[in-house]
């Protein structure tokens, strides 16, 4: 029998974490427990994240159906005797009633050790709990991660995008899982292609190769940088830059990006997806390359591209291993190479 664990509402609300937690439970790594009070709290809070009430109700119904033995009842009389934070006493009471070994919660301060110790219960942050499960059975946890990524459809996620999403709530686990999935020193999944094949990969429908799109602006800026000594390249770079004067003669940027190539997929700024995008540049072997598998690359240059008032996209700045937030861009800070 898998060890029983009560999942607090704060763990069940964020979809990437909740989905993974339930997949791991379904795989037999632990037994999830909750009360109707916990599920009601989840359903009330999901609309705050943009989930419609109908979809929230459907999600809770699916959880009940998938784990019919997870419901804890008969704990109500224990609630007044619990010594943790009043608003979370029902969670601890459910754990005591069910004989749970742990409560998994992001609100550790509401579950002090001295209130849990008499019942032999431990409060664990989901980050720590997931890392424990990864240590327990790495192959099974990584298989569940891959299954989660492959079954994500609305929206679809790459494996690295899923890890990025998980990192917002469980950064330690996301980092350990990344190390396990892509060990340091493993070869990058890149394929040597011709220049025309690279263009076709970036712009498969033969449209978008201009600065009316974020990808087009970034790609044109980069190709002009590669041809900096050619006549007209400097003028083109200036036209494709949000603040040309901050780049000087562009030679510093050219030196920094020497030996780096633009990755195909751009990242939309979560706070302004229609106005700010990030293009990644990865180290290369001197050939045009394209990815044929998904992997996070830890050392990257970031080209930040912004939509200007005239509707066209231009390069705002360049950074290394850092995505400038919208607040920094709106401050009008120097956008040149950092």
From TrEMBL:
<keyword id="KW-0540">Nuclease</keyword>
<keyword id="KW-0460">Magnesium</keyword>
<dbReference type="GO" id="GO:0016787">
    <property type="term" value="F:hydrolase activity"/>
</dbReference>
<dbReference type="GO" id="GO:0004518">
    <property type="term" value="F:nuclease activity"/>
</dbReference>
<dbReference type="Pfam" id="PF26343">
    <property type="entry name" value="VapC50_C"/>
</dbReference>
<protein>
    <submittedName>
        <fullName>PIN domain-containing protein</fullName>
    </submittedName>
</protein>
<keyword id="KW-1277">Toxin-antitoxin system</keyword>
<dbReference type="InterPro" id="IPR058652">
    <property type="entry name" value="VapC50_C"/>
</dbReference>
<dbReference type="GO" id="GO:0046872">
    <property type="term" value="F:metal ion binding"/>
</dbReference>
<keyword id="KW-0479">Metal-binding</keyword>
<feature type="domain" description="VapC50 C-terminal">
    <location>
        <begin position="126"/>
        <end position="177"/>
    </location>
</feature>
<keyword id="KW-0378">Hydrolase</keyword>
<dbReference type="InterPro" id="IPR002716">
    <property type="entry name" value="PIN_dom"/>
</dbReference>
<feature type="domain" description="PIN">
    <location>
        <begin position="5"/>
        <end position="108"/>
    </location>
</feature>
<dbReference type="InterPro" id="IPR029060">
    <property type="entry name" value="PIN-like_dom_sf"/>
</dbReference>
<dbReference type="Pfam" id="PF13470">
    <property type="entry name" value="PIN_3"/>
</dbReference>
